[in-house]
């Protein structure tokens, strides 16, 4: 479910017309629905309520501090993977004890900052990292809590770049190695190794990989407890799916119906790290058609958003539904995704202005007739959209807008050329604005 719909022939976000936002803020622009963020967070919380989990929103999916604050107010903790994300969580007012810090390459400065903040948990990814964490904690005379990230060697059947739970990935340790890590580090005081962390990848649009991974994790916990180790936390990670092509992602309750029975009565504090399932369908990228052209047998819509604004199609060959904000009469979609089928649609490539052949947002997509000046909406762009934006071709980042009911506000202003150059030129950049 999301709160983007066509009313009276035009796309709205909640009760705010998208064309009004584009007129006032310009394009390209990311537009988010606060109600959709809340809806999907609440759906996860309600589905898993029996376990009373700590739900740590994965900041990497959509990191704007205003959105973090919105979810913090719903009770969310935060999953962070860098010092910058830790800073965002704290700036949003997060309870530090509800922060978990993952990532394979935590620097000493990042670890110390997390220790200073007194975060709840470090999700440790290797023996080397654990050795370093122990050394830093002892040097500071501090005790920290940690969970070991374990690869259950389960294939989530997703893109190879977002598969993280197979034995050969860079993340975590395999099951055999995990046993040795606890033998070496599980009985010292500086880092209290009390948990297991699982994260198999994203997006995972079926429950079976979670069932397989959690069963392996529980078997390891039983074995470790029998050996005398105190294990009272299981972080099941994130990765639940979102709707891109149709309604392919199971609802939160369907994941819960398979997972909750496995964890019931296990005397474990459950941590979850949803990101995409909360954020993806809560945002769109709005772009304007600059030119329509024909090259050989292909027709192109050249728009003002490019791969630097939304890299998922170029990086993952990811599908995003694209449709005009104000379609011609007769072209209002009753559903979104690959199933849209109307007479009069034209095969088009939607491409950006970046000087790369890989700069595309949609290929061979059947769309209503569109011309210069028309607005297009790129749906399901709330997760891994703006957060992966770059300045390639010296293109300033677009703004982000948050809609609440019939009102909207800019939660990140559009960058200027001065912003692009500020770190290169210091005070001089202030004189080279648009």
Labels describing this entry:
Lyase, Ornithine Decarboxylase, Chain A, domain 1, 21 strands, 434 residues, alpha/beta, TIM Barrel, 24% strand
Please provide a brief summary of the model.
The chain is of the alpha/beta class. It has helices at residues 18-25, 34-47, 65-72, 83-91, 108-117, 127-140, 175-185, 208-226, 252-263, 276-279, 312-316, 417-425; strands at 4-7, 10-13, 16-17, 29-33, 54-58, 77-80, 99-101, 121-124, 144-151, 173-174, 191-197, 233-235, 269-272, 283-295, 298-303, 322-324, 346-351, 360-367, 375-378, 400-404, 407-412.
Structure description:
By secondary structure, the protein is an alpha/beta fold. It folds into two domains: 4-31 and 280-426, Lyase, Ornithine Decarboxylase, Chain A, domain 1, CATH 2.40.37; 34-278, Alpha-Beta Barrel (TIM Barrel). It has twelve helices and 21 strands. The protein has helices at residues 18-25, 34-47, 65-72, 83-91, 108-117, 127-140, 175-185, 208-226, 252-263, 276-279, 312-316, 417-425; strands at 4-7, 10-13, 16-17, 29-33, 54-58, 77-80, 99-101, 121-124, 144-151, 173-174, 191-197, 233-235, 269-272, 283-295, 298-303, 322-324, 346-351, 360-367, 375-378, 400-404, 407-412. The strands form three sheets. Strands 4, 14, 15, 16, 17, 18, 19, 20 and 21 form a nine-stranded mixed beta sheet that branches. Helix 2 runs parallel beside helix 9 (252-263), helix 5 (108-117) packs across helix 6 and helix 8 (208-226) runs parallel beside helix 9 (252-263). The longest helix is centred in the middle third of the chain and has 19 residues, at 208-226. The two termini are 39 Å apart.
């Amino acid at each position: 479910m999301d709160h983007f719909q066509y009313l009276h022939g035009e796309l709205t976000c909640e009760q705010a017309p998208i064309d009004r936002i584009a007129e006032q803020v310009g394009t390209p622009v990311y537009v988010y629905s606060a109600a959709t963020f809340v809806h999907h967070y609440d759906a996860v919380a309600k589905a898993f309520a029996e376990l009373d989990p700590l739900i740590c929103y994965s900041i990497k999916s959509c990191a704007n501090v205003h959105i973090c604050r919105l979810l913090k107010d719903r009770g969310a903790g935060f999953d962070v993977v860098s010092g910058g994300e830790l800073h965002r969580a704290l700036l949003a007012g997060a309870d530090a004890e509800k922060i978990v810090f993952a990532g394979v390459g935590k620097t000493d400065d990042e670890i110390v900052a997390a220790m200073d903040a007194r975060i709840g948990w470090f999700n440790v990814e290797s023996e080397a990292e654990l050795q370093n964490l122990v050394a830093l904690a002892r040097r500071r005379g501090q005790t920290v809590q940690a969970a070991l990230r374990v690869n259950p060697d389960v294939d989530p059947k997703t893109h190879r770049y977002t598969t993280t739970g197979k034995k050969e990935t860079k993340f975590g340790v395999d099951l055999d190695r995990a046993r040795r890590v606890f033998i070496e580090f599980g009985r010292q005081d500086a880092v209290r190794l009390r948990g297991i962390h699982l994260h198999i990848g994203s997006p995972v649009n079926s429950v079976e990989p979670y069932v397989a991974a959690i069963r392996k994790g529980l078997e390891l916990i039983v074995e470790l407890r029998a050996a005398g180790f105190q294990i009272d936390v299981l972080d099941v990670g994130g990765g639940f799916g979102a709707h891109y092509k149709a309604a392919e992602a199971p609802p939160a309750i369907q994941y819960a119906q398979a997972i909750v029975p496995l964890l019931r009565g296990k005397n474990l504090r459950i941590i979850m790290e949803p990101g995409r399932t909360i954020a993806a369908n809560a945002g769109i990228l709005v772009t304007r058609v600059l030119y329509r052209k024909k090259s050989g047998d292909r027709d192109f819509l050249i728009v003002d958003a490019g791969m630097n604004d939304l890299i998922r199609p170029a990086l993952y060959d990811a599908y995003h539904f694209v449709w005009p904000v104000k379609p011609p009469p007769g072209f209002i979609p009753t559903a979104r995704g690959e199933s849209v089928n109307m007479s009069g649609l034209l095969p088009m490539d939607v491409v950006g202005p970046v000087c790369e052949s890989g700069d595309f947002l949609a290929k061979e997509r059947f769309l209503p007739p569109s011309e210069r000046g028309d607005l297009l909406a790129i749906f399901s762009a709330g997760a891994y959209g703006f957060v992966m934006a770059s300045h390639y071709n010296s293109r300033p980042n677009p703004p982000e807008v948050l809609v609440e009911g019939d009102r909207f506000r800019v939660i990140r202003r559009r960058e200027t050329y001065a912003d692009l150059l500020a770190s290169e030129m210091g005070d001089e950049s202030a004189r080279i604005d648009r």
